[in-house]
Amino acid sequence: MVLMFPGLAYAQVPTEAWAYRGDMVRSAWRVFGPMAPVAELAAQIHQESAWKINAVSWAGAQGFTQFMPGTSKDMAARFPSECAPANPFNAQWAFRCRDRYLKSLTRTIANKTISECSEWALGFKAYNGGLGWVKRDRKLTAASGGDPNDWRQVNLYNAGRKASAHRENREYPERIFGLSPRYNSWGRMLEC
Fold this sequence. Notes:
Lysozyme
């Protein structure tokens, strides 16, 4: 539908987002290269904060990328040349450090048999709910006869989280993939 009505996609992008488009795309290309899934990376920020740089969640997550204060400090320690000092309310910091974090997550998940969509979906799930839970859910998926490299199959298994936390984590990549067509004019979009 977006292809038939391209103006609709532009109308659905929050006005605030346009001011940050260039910085976000440059960060994505710098970290992931020219094949960066820019549409999904923009959609993630839409999902996390609706492009509100001063957003603070009920749990205390901050800025565009909704890093918890501890994660912000961890990013500053892990990537000092790019993420120190921690400043989740700065757009360039948020893009740079979110991209570094996601790259570390997707690299941990990647293997020779996983599809690009599953690699990103599981990376987004790890961003949202923790890499440890993704690993445990994948292990349970495999033990139950499912494919731990298929994010949709992994979504069926809960290795012990509260039902509400599992539901939020299961739906997180789906929401990002659902929002990404709004940003397809910004750069590459995954075909998931």
